[in-house]
Amino acid sequence: KSANPQWREQFDFHYFSDRKDMLDIEVRRKDNKKHEELLGTCHVDITALPTKQTNCLELPLEKHPGSLLMLIAVAPCTGVSISDLCVCPLGDPSERQQISQRYSIKNSFRDIKDIGFLQVKVLKAVDLMAADFSGKSDPFCVLELGNDMLQTHTVYKNLNPEWNKVFTFPIKDIHDVLEVTVFDEDGDKPPDFLGKVAIPLLSV
Description:
The chain has 204 residues and is mainly beta. The protein folds into two domains: 22-74, no CATH class; 81-203, C2 domain (Immunoglobulin-like). The chain is 5% helix and 43% strand. The protein has one helix and eleven strands. The strands form four sheets. It has a four-stranded antiparallel β-sheet with strand order 8-7-10-11, with no helix packed on it. The chain is globular, with a radius of gyration of 20 Å.
């Protein structure tokens, strides 16, 4: 019930290679749980923004009245990684020892925001639903923790995909829930939902 909403939400997106990246933003209005109306879109060329500073942007919505006020900061990634199973970041005993010391009781108050990290090994999926006419799917896996999101590559034409990837997230809130969702890649169309599991951090 507002024409001037304030969300004050922060989202983290991770880039691991030099490439041209556009941030696409949609503003939608919900009448109820089933009906949504598009109120406008805007785009930000991330590569054109100055790095290591917070950029305040007022973005007019395309073909619709109104604008978005956003703070966007482009900074080097810290605490987040994607690696192959054979080079797992915790596989090195000396690194394990360093991490044990870093999170020991005596260092608990050295950095209040650094409460730990979560390492997830995404191995494979079994007996997925066939989303294509060929009786196969093109599955990929998305991991979300708080407002952090990482994803695997797509394994094409396979109902039993193997990803064998290791994902590392910094933990910002011990009450967060890790959500793992499997989608079917569908070209230029939105991906099809194949399944989801939610794992509270406190259960790990």
